Structure of DNA repair and recombination protein RAD26:
Amino acid sequence: MIGKPFRPPSFVRDTLSSDQPPLKKRRISSDAPANGPARHASGDRKPLVAVPNPAPAPHSTSGDPNERYYTVLWRKFTNKKHKSWDGDGVLAVKAGYGTLTDSDTGKELARGACTRPLLAGSALSLGGKELEIDSVIKKEDFMSGRMFLGTAAKTPAEPAKRIEPGHKPLGASKGSTGRNKPPRTPSDGVGNDDSLALDRKPATAGNIFKTPLLSSTVVPKTNSSAPQPRHDPNQPNALLMKRPSSCPKGKQIVDVVVDPVLSKHLRDHQREGVQFLYECVMGMRCEGEGAIMADEMGLGKTLQTIALLWTLMKQNPIYESAPVVTKALIVCPAGLVDNWRREFRKWLGNERIGVFVADPKNKRITNFTKGKAYNIMIIGYEMLRTVQEEMKKGKIDIVIADEGHRLKTANNKAMQAIQSLNTERRVILSGTPLQNDLGEFFTAIDFVNPGLLGQRSAFKRTFETPIVRSRQPDASESELEKGEARWKELVSLTSRFMIRRTAEVLTKYLPPKTEHIVFCRPTAAQAAAYRAILTSPIFAVALGNTDMALQLINVLKKICNSPALLKSKKDADDTPSEMLQSILPLIPANVLNSNASSSKLRVLDSLVHRIYTTTEEKIVIVSNYTQTLDMIERLLVSLSYTYCRLDGSTPAKNRQGLVEKFNRSSQKDHFAFLLSAKSGGVGLNLIGASRIVLFDIDWNPATDLQAMARIHRDGQKLPCKIYRFMIQGGLDEKIYQRQIMKMGLANAVVDNKASASSFSREELKDLFRLDERETCQTHDLLGCDCDCRGSLETAIEPPVKVEEVEEDSDDEPLRGFGSAGKVDIEDQEERIKSRRKAKQPKLTLLMEYRHIDPKHLREENAEEIDLVDEEGARGNSVDADAMALAVDDDVFLDLLKEKDSRVGFVLTKSSS
């Protein structure tokens, strides 16, 4: 075998041999022969789809042409042979630096230099991480933060939830699935298949009792195979709900129509609210089945909820299926339990629905969970915690949380009790869903729709921190832009399951109201007591100690009401005795033993006397402190005025009866109603009074707004007058300025942290400072140049021009713009100013008020008496008439004209 030439293996073919058959050609199409000629591709193949370049335009609004944003895959450095990615992320490249953020948690993972261009598939290292570019994203998408949320929040869910297995879509039907459509007939394409029509079940023999329903509100049964709604959708003013987009196999869709017994009483905004709530709890608007109704006080949240529950308990969009809801739980403050029971009886009577009210006398929860007589249970937040184990034994289909802002934190016991019921359909009713901060707002959202906005930590990094940072006065341009984009995205996400309407929709239903912001000049003794504390050693200690600062704030608030409150035996604020012992010697004994030094009490004395003697109206007086209510009560007793009082010591079972007695009585029987804002500030209708006084002010604007809405509600017949008292130049006015700043953010974050730790040292100094000038500090901060005579020509100062900034300001508006032209500089400067003006807290809401300095009224009054010149008297009379028209309150106008009136300035706004 040695020397024998090599022979190729037999299985290797000689491709050059001519006797071999030709290779088969690749088949171009299914009908082309294997060995036939190839067809021309242009005849059968579709043209290539043009794919747009995802890279953003080279021009960037921030001034950086290399600013880019990418979605990436990332992992830690590893020497493994088979590597895997650790997660998804977002890479932001700006000014030559790249920042990697995790998509799931929103946490910053790495940062480093990044100067080279990146395309899809590019690999790079950054801050100890390996990255691979997945795609390029737009700056708008990055700024909105939507890629940091879970998939539930990115795209709304189209199909309705809670559908039986084997459902089929309704895409083959010809009819529309929109709301307010007439019932479908066989000609509509739904119900024309005999296989889908279900035979009706005969009535059970011996079933004699029938639900007492009016024949005029229920559609009579027919032999037609078409789905038949419970109520006639073709009747005038019929309220139809939206149809689901899918249906179980073998079933049909039927219209859901609100019972005319209720719908005929619903106003336009209430009809819209019922439809919104229905779509939310049926899963038609987002992944979850929860909703937040954030209507302001007085818009009828209770009636809308009753209409929703009654509709769900009697109807189902799936024809001949059981009602959507069988058992409903309403959780509310203890003081509103009886109010809910009365509302159900008012709108549905006792014969239509069974309502179980849980109270200390009726604790047998099994009557509701196991029995069939009750469909609705009303219970207080405190009692729910004690019976939650018994509640778990039954099945609750929907939970309504009234005044849901009480569920502030995830560790709240009431929230834990509701969550233990495992009910997916949850609705929060609250006129103030943003009472404190975005953290509590997230808790409310996660309560009604769990997981919709991802984890709490990711929400804080993605939304809360950028938005709060953008509200700071020293926020940079990029922080302002990012915060604004994140806020808009958050509003867009929450609008799918939260509805908010203001009291403006009631203007055509309710009588007009006038609001007076009354700045009371402190008496000499009151100002001396204020100054004595600010010049004492305790003030210097408080500036460096958070707890001491909070105690000092409470002391100054008492002085604003009356210095005599410091000596009261009842100390509601738990002020340490050491502080009181150091403060009381600074104030004269005669001031501590009498309320005569209280400027607010003097104004209130004059006001209630004029109301009682010149009108037939009644008044509500609100305070945050029981000590202050005690002081006002002594004043009314000394004047022999009759009154009612509701505070924390009033038993919950007696509160509604007290309110009804006041509303029915005359002025002689019950002239005043003393109300604690903390105990009875929500859910009470005090329409028996047409005037209300807020004697002191709260850090939280929502608390005052709720109290003010007690009289301006459905059933009010008289024009309403609202008076808000505060000491001019004192702590009251500083708190009010912060209230306006919060409300001036156009329904943005309400930061209600009344903690000294949230103030800098300079802010604390300004907070405690007593401004004893004759002018109003709040009006001065506005920069308003009006004559303070109540004219409507008040306007905000126009934006400062660039030339003025260059001459008068120490800032450098040209910094960072290089050698740009003058036009570009002006445009850039105006854009920055407009953003800052839109996001920074301003007092511009006060420009809606008329600004009145009462000294002009007193001067006009004196001149009209002394002047004999006919022409001059005529001119003064015109001014006086104009100011009287601005005040729009004869009783209050007479008080302002008093020679010794303690009112130093007034801001007034009327809806008439």
About this structure: The two ends are 120 Å apart (CA to CA).
